[in-house]
């Protein structure tokens, strides 16, 4: 159920100076903050000092009673802020200055910071689920297998230079030799068999900022959506992806789709795992939904298919 913002909220903007577009957009970010200040919002801008710092700063802000913490960065910064805010009353917002900015796109926000700041002036607060991979919370998705391998090998310098094309390049390089792996998977207690190329566990719908791999995901339904692509070789993945894009989940025997609360993945071969676009580690790992655990600021124009009807 949507809740109105307090009239003059106390806001902390955590600015990641190493996010993809931070250098170019620093002044624009200040201008966006001024739009909020001009409406009486109490806004403070603070840079992050190192990877992981946004988790600590967001947690402290929640303890100090801030109404909103804004992740001014990409999805890595959003993920850190989420990890500081889960289970608190403080809400997450975003000013997209990263490379891909999936959460901002998922909310239907423009990529122009002035327009984002204006959209948030009339936004509402919503309570949503998050996912948990091992001990790490995630907002968007966890990717296991091929997807995790691509993320593990992304070079930060190359990501800065090439943007999203760094992922395209790495995907093409790895796809030639990547083989599906027999793994032990339990989804809400049910065993799933076969050779696994890729598993996406989605709390939300968008993948990579452009496609929907977990197209039926709802952010406040108490479940995670799981899309599994099976097979021997990534070279046939385009066929599988065609099934995903045309939503022929479960009609293509190599593309299976579940809605679940608990997912367990283990096996002889360890699979790389990414969460919200950043490499996390390797299986064995358990994944679970943490229902209604994060307040988020949501513009009025958001895609209604992300929410369950109340
Ligand atoms: N002060 C800092 N110094 C170095 N790295 C930092 C600092 N603050 C944050 N980081 C790290 O920068 C990394 C990249 O940030 P982020 O994901 O926000 O931007 P991006 O990679 O450009 O965007 P996207 O994830 O949308 O592609 C994160 O993993 C984060 O931990």
Would you give an account of this structure?
Belongs to the diacylglycerol/lipid kinase family. Keywords: ATP-binding, Kinase, Lipid biosynthesis, Lipid metabolism, Magnesium, Metal-binding, Nucleotide-binding, Phospholipid biosynthesis, Phospholipid metabolism, Transferase. This is Diacylglycerol kinase. Its cofactor is Mg(2+). Residues 6-136 form the DAGKc domain. This protein has 310 residues and is α+β, with helices and mostly antiparallel strands. It has 2 domains: 3-122, Rossmann fold, CATH 3.40.50.10330; 136-290, Tumour Suppressor Smad4 (Sandwich), CATH 2.60.200.40. The protein has 9 helices and 20 strands. The protein has helices spanning 22-37, 53-63, 75-85, 102-106, 113-121, 146-152, 156-162, 165-175, 237-245, and strands at residues 3-4, 10-15, 42-47, 68-73, 91-96, 124-133, 136-138, 141-145, 181-182, 184-187, 190-192, 195-202, 206-207, 211-212, 224-230, 255-260, 262-266, 272-275, 278-282, 285-298. The strands form 3 sheets. Strands 1, 2, 3, 4, 5, 6, 7, 10, 11, 17 and 20 form an 11-stranded mixed beta sheet that branches. Strands 8, 9, 12, 15, 16, 18 and 19 form a 7-stranded antiparallel beta sheet that branches. The chain has a two-stranded antiparallel ribbon with strand order 13-14. Strand 18 (272-275) and strand 19 form a beta hairpin. Helix 1 (22-37) runs parallel beside helix 5, helix 2 (53-63) crosses helix 3 (75-85) and helix 6 packs across helix 8 (165-175). The longest helix is centred in the first third of the chain and has 16 residues, at 22-37. The protein is globular and about 55 Å long. The model has no long low-confidence stretch (mean pLDDT 92). The structure holds adenosine-5'-triphosphate (ATP).
């Amino acid at each position: 159920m949507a809740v109105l913002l307090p009239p003059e909220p106390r806001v902390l903007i955590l600015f990641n100076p190493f996010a993809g577009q931070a250098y170019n957009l620093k002044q624009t970010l200040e201008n966006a903050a001024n739009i909020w200040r001009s409406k009486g919002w109490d806004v403070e801008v603070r840079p992050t000092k190192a990877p992981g710092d946004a988790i600590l700063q967001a947690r402290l802000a929640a303890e100090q009673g801030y109404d909103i913490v804004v992740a001014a960065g990409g999805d890595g910064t959003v993920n850190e802020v989420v990890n500081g805010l889960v289970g608190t009353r403080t809400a997450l917002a975003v000013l997209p200055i990263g490379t891909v900015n999936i959460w901002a796109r998922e909310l239907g926000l423009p990529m122009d910071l002035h327009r984002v700041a204006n959209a948030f002036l009339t936004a509402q607060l919503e309570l949503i689920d998050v996912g948990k991979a091992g001990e790490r919370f995630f907002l968007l998705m966890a990717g296991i297998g091929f997807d995790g391998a691509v993320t593990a090998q992304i070079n930060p310098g190359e990501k800065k230079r090439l943007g999203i094309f760094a992922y395209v390049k790495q995907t093409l390089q790895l796809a030639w030799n990547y083989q599906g792996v027999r793994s032990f998977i339990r989804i809400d207690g049910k065993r799933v068999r076969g050779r696994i190329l890729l598993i996406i566990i989605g709390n939300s719908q968008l993948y990579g900022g452009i496609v929907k791999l977990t197209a039926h995901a709802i952010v406040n339904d108490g479940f995670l959506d799981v899309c599994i692509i099976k097979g021997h070789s990534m070279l046939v993945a385009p066929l599988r992806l065609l099934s995903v894009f045309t939503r022929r989940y479960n009609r293509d025997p190599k593309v299976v789709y579940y809605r679940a609360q608990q997912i367990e993945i283990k096996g002889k071969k360890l699979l790389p795992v990414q969460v919200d676009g950043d490499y996390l580690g390797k299986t064995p790992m358990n994944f679970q939904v943490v229902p209604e655990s994060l307040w988020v600021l949501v513009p009025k124009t958001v895609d209604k298919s992300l929410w369950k009807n109340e």
